[in-house]
Amino acid sequence: MSQLILTLLGPPRAELDGEPIQLDRRKAVALLAYLAVTAREHSRDALATLLWPEFDQQRARAGLRRTLAALRHVLGDGWLEIDRETVRLNPDLSTGLRQAQP
To answer: CB within 8 A of 52, min separation 6: which ones?
Structure first.
């Protein structure tokens, strides 16, 4: 089973199966951390408003789409469950998710 490790104390760091992954967008790191820490489904509108409060809903959702695509590209298939209205980490795989100790 794949294992995703997030280190959120100090500079955020993510590893997938022991290999560091590069998330070149701060919003991608924030979104991944939020999904991992809350461990539940979130509406796209709520996530867009949380991460892009300065944008109207259409632009915020566009930013969320780009960020989700970047996360999916880096993590690969299966880690994210995304549909037209909601986003969450796959609960079947999240058992492999752990918070690293500093």
So the answer is: 27, 59, 60, 63, 64
How far is it, in rounded angstroms, from Cα 54 to Cα 57? 9
Average pLDDT value over all residues in the chain:
89
End-to-end CA distance of the chain: 23
- Digit-coded pLDDT (tens) for 57-87: 999 999 999 999 999 999 998 999 999 999 9
**pTM exceeds 0.70:** yes
The one-letter amino acid at 65: R
Q: Would the CA dihedral through 12, 37, 79, 4 be positive or negative?
A: positive
User: From CA 81, how far away is CA 68, in angstroms rounded?
Assistant: 10
Q: Which two tokens stand for residue 83?
A: 């549909």
